[in-house]
Amino acid sequence: MVDARTHVAAVATRGPDQRVLVDLRARRVLRRVALPEAPRRLAEDDGGATTADGGRLRVVLSARERVLELYDATSRRRVARAAAGVGPTHVACLTRGGWCWVLDTRGDALLVFRVGDDDLELTRRVYLPGGPYGIAVDRTRGRLWVTLPGRNELVGLPAHGRPHVVARHATVRQPDSVAVDAATGQVVVTGRTDGLLQLVTP
C-alpha cells in the first residue's frame, strides 16, 4: 500500500512480525511497528473484496469456493456469481469502468470480468505462466501490474477489457505483492524469499 501524497509505502513483514513504513523518495525506513501476530494474506483463506461502479457494488472473491460474487453495497444482497478459475487468489477492479481482473494463480491466468448492474461475465482469459499472485491497478495511467513468482517477474498490462503484456521487469526472488504510487507511477514489489522491497520506475 502506497500513500500517493506522502510517497510512503506500508509493508507487512514476518520474522519479526511488523509493519514497516518506507519513504520511497528517500529510499529509507521511517518506522517499524510491531504486530501482535504474523500478517495474514487474506486471499490464502477466503479471498478478497473490492468495490466497483463508484462503490455501489462490492465484488468478493472466494478463494475456497473458486467463485467471484457481486453484491449490492447498500442491501448486501448477492446479485451475481461466476466461476473464477481453478485456483484464484486476488481480485482488482476499476472503481468506474465495469472491469474486474482475477488472478487464477494455479491456472497461470488473468481472468477478465465485465461487471454489470446484476451480472458478472467472464470475457477473456490471459495466459500468464509463473503463477500470477500480486496485482495492483494504476488507475491514473490505466495499467495493471502483476507479479509472477514462478518467473521472478513483474508484468504490465493495459487496464481494460483486452489486457495483454506490454512490459516485463525482472524482480527480487518470489515477488509476493505489488503496489503503485498513484502520483508518480512508481511500482513497489516485495519479495517473500529475501525480505526485499524493489522499486520499479516504468
Rg, please?
Answer: 17 Å
Q: What is the N-to-C order of secondary-structure elements (H for helix, E for strand)?
A: EEEEHEEEEEEEEEEEEEEE
- Major sheet: arrangement of strands: 1-2-3-4
CATH homologous superfamily assignment: YVTN repeat-like/Quinoprotein amine dehydrogenase
Question: Could you give the count of β-strands?
Answer: 19
Q: Can you count the helices?
A: 1
Give the domain tally: 1
**Unreliable sequence segments:** 41-46
Average residue pLDDT: 87
Structure description:
The chain is mainly β and 202 residues long. It has one domain: Methylamine Dehydrogenase, Chain H (7 Propeller), CATH 2.130.10.10. It has one helix spanning 42-45, and strands at residues 2-3, 8-13, 18-23, 28-34, 48-52, 57-62, 67-72, 78-83, 88-93, 99-104, 109-115, 120-127, 135-138, 143-148, 153-158, 167-170, 175-180, 187-191, 196-200. The strands form five sheets. It has a four-stranded antiparallel sheet, with no helix packed on it. The longest helix is centred in the first third of the chain and has 4 residues, at 42-45. Mean pLDDT is 87; it is low at 41-46.
Show the helix and strand layout.
Layout: E1 2-3, E2 8-13, E3 18-23, E4 28-34, H1 42-45, E5 48-52, E6 57-62, E7 67-72, E8 78-83, E9 88-93, E10 99-104, E11 109-115, E12 120-127, E13 135-138, E14 143-148, E15 153-158, E16 167-170, E17 175-180, E18 187-191, E19 196-200
Antiparallel strand pairs: 1-2, 2-3, 3-4, 5-6, 6-7, 7-8, 9-10, 10-11, 11-12, 13-14, 14-15, 15-16, 17-18, 18-19
